[in-house]
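Progress report, Aim 2. The chain analyzed during this reporting quarter is listed below.
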Amino acid sequence: MTEWVHHTPRWVVISVCVIAGVLFFVGAFAHVTDLLRHGLHPYDWAPGWLNLYWSSLALFDALAAALLILGKRRGTDLACAIMATDLAANWYAVYGIQHSSFAAQPGLQRLTVFAALVLGTAPFIRRRLTSRGDA
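Predicted C-alpha coordinates for the chain:
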Protein backbone atom coordinates (compact mmCIF):
# COMPACT_ATOMS: atom_id res chain seq x y z
CA MET A 1 0.00 0.00 0.00
CA THR A 2 2.88 2.42 0.70
CA GLU A 3 4.84 1.30 -2.34
CA TRP A 4 4.02 4.54 -4.17
CA VAL A 5 5.90 6.47 -1.44
CA HIS A 6 9.09 4.75 -2.61
CA HIS A 7 8.46 5.80 -6.21
CA THR A 8 8.07 9.55 -5.85
CA PRO A 9 9.12 10.99 -9.23
CA ARG A 10 12.62 12.51 -9.22
CA TRP A 11 11.32 15.83 -10.59
CA VAL A 12 8.97 16.13 -7.59
CA VAL A 13 11.83 15.45 -5.18
CA ILE A 14 14.06 18.03 -6.88
CA SER A 15 11.26 20.61 -7.04
CA VAL A 16 10.37 20.25 -3.36
CA CYS A 17 14.03 20.40 -2.28
CA VAL A 18 14.73 23.50 -4.36
CA ILE A 19 11.55 25.31 -3.27
CA ALA A 20 12.08 24.46 0.41
CA GLY A 21 15.79 25.26 0.13
CA VAL A 22 15.11 28.70 -1.32
CA LEU A 23 12.50 29.41 1.36
CA PHE A 24 14.92 28.33 4.11
CA PHE A 25 17.53 30.70 2.63
CA VAL A 26 14.92 33.49 2.76
CA GLY A 27 14.35 32.67 6.42
CA ALA A 28 18.10 32.61 7.12
CA PHE A 29 18.46 36.01 5.44
CA ALA A 30 15.66 37.44 7.59
CA HIS A 31 17.27 36.11 10.78
CA VAL A 32 20.72 37.40 9.76
CA THR A 33 19.17 40.80 9.06
CA ASP A 34 17.55 40.79 12.53
CA LEU A 35 20.89 39.85 14.09
CA LEU A 36 22.73 42.64 12.31
CA ARG A 37 20.11 45.25 13.15
CA HIS A 38 19.17 44.26 16.70
CA GLY A 39 21.67 41.69 18.00
CA LEU A 40 20.71 38.45 19.72
CA HIS A 41 17.48 39.90 21.15
CA PRO A 42 15.60 41.41 18.21
CA TYR A 43 12.15 41.16 19.80
CA ASP A 44 11.75 43.23 22.98
CA TRP A 45 8.45 41.59 23.82
CA ALA A 46 9.80 38.00 23.69
CA PRO A 47 11.72 36.21 26.45
CA GLY A 48 15.46 35.74 26.02
CA TRP A 49 15.30 32.03 25.24
CA LEU A 50 12.85 32.65 22.40
CA ASN A 51 15.01 35.44 20.98
CA LEU A 52 18.05 33.14 21.10
CA TYR A 53 16.12 30.35 19.39
CA TRP A 54 15.03 32.64 16.56
CA SER A 55 18.55 34.06 16.25
CA SER A 56 19.97 30.53 16.00
CA LEU A 57 17.81 30.01 12.92
CA ALA A 58 20.22 32.27 10.99
CA LEU A 59 22.60 29.29 11.04
CA PHE A 60 20.16 26.38 11.08
CA ASP A 61 17.94 27.68 8.25
CA ALA A 62 21.00 28.20 6.04
CA LEU A 63 22.30 24.73 6.88
CA ALA A 64 18.94 23.10 6.12
CA ALA A 65 18.73 24.99 2.82
CA ALA A 66 22.20 23.89 1.75
CA LEU A 67 21.59 20.25 2.69
CA LEU A 68 18.24 20.19 0.88
CA ILE A 69 19.67 21.71 -2.28
CA LEU A 70 22.52 19.17 -2.15
CA GLY A 71 19.90 16.40 -1.90
CA LYS A 72 20.90 15.09 1.53
CA ARG A 73 18.54 13.22 3.84
CA ARG A 74 19.88 15.19 6.78
CA GLY A 75 18.47 18.28 5.09
CA THR A 76 15.00 16.82 5.29
CA ASP A 77 15.51 15.77 8.91
CA LEU A 78 16.83 19.20 9.91
CA ALA A 79 14.08 20.96 7.96
CA CYS A 80 11.42 18.96 9.82
CA ALA A 81 13.01 19.66 13.20
CA ILE A 82 13.24 23.38 12.40
CA MET A 83 9.67 23.63 11.17
CA ALA A 84 8.19 21.73 14.11
CA THR A 85 10.05 23.81 16.70
CA ASP A 86 9.68 27.13 14.86
CA LEU A 87 5.97 26.62 14.38
CA ALA A 88 5.54 25.74 18.06
CA ALA A 89 7.60 28.78 19.10
CA ASN A 90 5.61 31.12 16.87
CA TRP A 91 2.24 29.75 17.97
CA TYR A 92 3.37 30.18 21.59
CA ALA A 93 4.47 33.75 20.86
CA VAL A 94 1.19 34.65 19.16
CA TYR A 95 -1.18 33.03 21.65
CA GLY A 96 0.81 32.88 24.88
CA ILE A 97 2.72 36.15 24.77
CA GLN A 98 1.02 38.52 22.35
CA HIS A 99 -2.51 37.23 23.04
CA SER A 100 -3.29 37.54 19.35
CA SER A 101 -4.93 35.20 16.87
CA PHE A 102 -3.96 33.22 13.80
CA ALA A 103 -6.16 35.43 11.61
CA ALA A 104 -4.33 38.57 12.75
CA GLN A 105 -0.84 37.18 12.05
CA PRO A 106 0.02 36.80 8.34
CA GLY A 107 3.57 35.75 9.25
CA LEU A 108 2.23 32.83 11.27
CA GLN A 109 -0.11 31.94 8.42
CA ARG A 110 2.80 31.79 5.95
CA LEU A 111 4.92 29.80 8.40
CA THR A 112 2.09 27.31 8.92
CA VAL A 113 1.73 26.75 5.16
CA PHE A 114 5.50 26.31 4.80
CA ALA A 115 5.54 23.87 7.72
CA ALA A 116 2.74 21.88 6.06
CA LEU A 117 4.79 21.73 2.85
CA VAL A 118 7.95 20.57 4.62
CA LEU A 119 6.34 18.14 7.06
CA GLY A 120 3.82 16.85 4.52
CA THR A 121 6.34 16.11 1.77
CA ALA A 122 9.25 14.86 3.91
CA PRO A 123 8.15 11.20 4.04
CA PHE A 124 7.82 11.12 0.26
CA ILE A 125 11.10 12.77 -0.65
CA ARG A 126 13.39 11.54 2.11
CA ARG A 127 13.73 8.04 0.72
CA ARG A 128 14.82 9.41 -2.64
CA LEU A 129 17.64 11.51 -1.15
CA THR A 130 21.15 10.28 -0.61
CA SER A 131 22.55 9.37 2.76
CA ARG A 132 26.10 9.10 1.39
CA GLY A 133 28.14 11.69 3.22
CA ASP A 134 25.47 11.81 5.93
CA ALA A 135 27.25 10.09 8.78
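The mean pLDDT is 91. Helices lie at 10-38, 48-69, 73-97, 106-126. These observations will guide the mutagenesis work planned for the next reporting period.
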